[in-house]
User: What shape does this take?
Amino acid sequence: MRKVMFKKISIIGVGLIGGSIGLAVKRSKLAHEVTGSTSCKATLTKAIKRKAIDKGSLDLGECVKDADLVILAVPVAEMKNILTLITTHLKPDCIVMDIASTKGEIVSIAEKILPKGIFFVGTHPMAGSENRGVDFAAANLFNDSVSIVTPTARTNKKCLNKVSQFWRKLGARVFSLSPKKHDEVVASVSHLPHAIAVSLMNVVSRPELKFAAGGFKDVTRISKSSEMIWKGIFASNSKEIVKKIDIFIKELGDFKKALEKSDKNKIKLKLNQARKKRGQI
Assistant: This one.
C-alpha cells in the first residue's frame, strides 16, 4: 500500500470548497480514503459521482470514524454544533481543521470543545467563487492561492506543520497569522469588499441595471454569493468589519470632497494610488 499523508480524510460539508478539497486530495493522492458528510443525500450522491469523495454518510459519527484528518467545510454558524456532535466519535491523535472565513470565535470554541488528544488547527483557504455546491468544485481551485493557518499557544506544532504541508500539496501558498490578526486582515481584503459589493447593488435601481457593463459586473460579482453563508461571516467578524467600513467611509468622503471642489489634482492622486496598489496584486 502506497505511503500517504493521511490514511483517511473526512470532509464535513462537500460543497464548493469541501468538494474541491476532496478532488485535490484525490488528484494529489494524499489519502487512501476520502469520506464526506452533509445533511443532503442528493449532495452526497453528486459528490461521489464527481469523485470528490469515495463514500458518504448522513451520519456524522460514521463519516469521521477512524479519520486521521477531519475537515470542517460548513458555514460559520454551524461550526459549534458540528464540533459538539463529532467530538465523541474522533479517534485519538485525530487532527481537526476548519476552512471558515473567520477565526477568532471558531478557534476559541474548538479549543474548548475538543478533548485532550484531539488536535485543532484553524485554516482559511483564500479561494472560491460566488457559485455554490459540489457541481462547481474543481481540483485546481487552490493552485497558487493563499491559505492562512491560525495557530495559538495551544496548537500542536507537529500538527500545524502537517496541515501547512497539506495545503502546500494542494497548490496553496501558506501564511501563518494569529486568529485575531487573521480576522483583521480578511476584514480588509474579503469582508469589506463583499459589504461594498452588496451595498452597491442595493443602491442601483433596477431600470439602471440594463446599462451595467463589465466594470460594474466585476465589482459586484461577489454579491451573488450565498446569504446563508455570508450572514454568519458578517456576524462572526462584525467588530473588525465595522472598523474597516469606517475607514472606507472616510476614504470615500475624501474622494467626494475632491469631486465637490473639482480638484483634478486630488482626483488624479487618488486614481494613481489605487492603480499602483492594484498592480501589486
User: Anything to note?
Assistant: The domain at 181-278 is CATH 1.10.3660.10 (6-phosphogluconate dehydrogenase C-terminal fold). The longest helix spans residues 179-203. The first strand starts at residue 6 and ends at 12. Residues 119 and 206 are 50 Å apart (CA to CA).
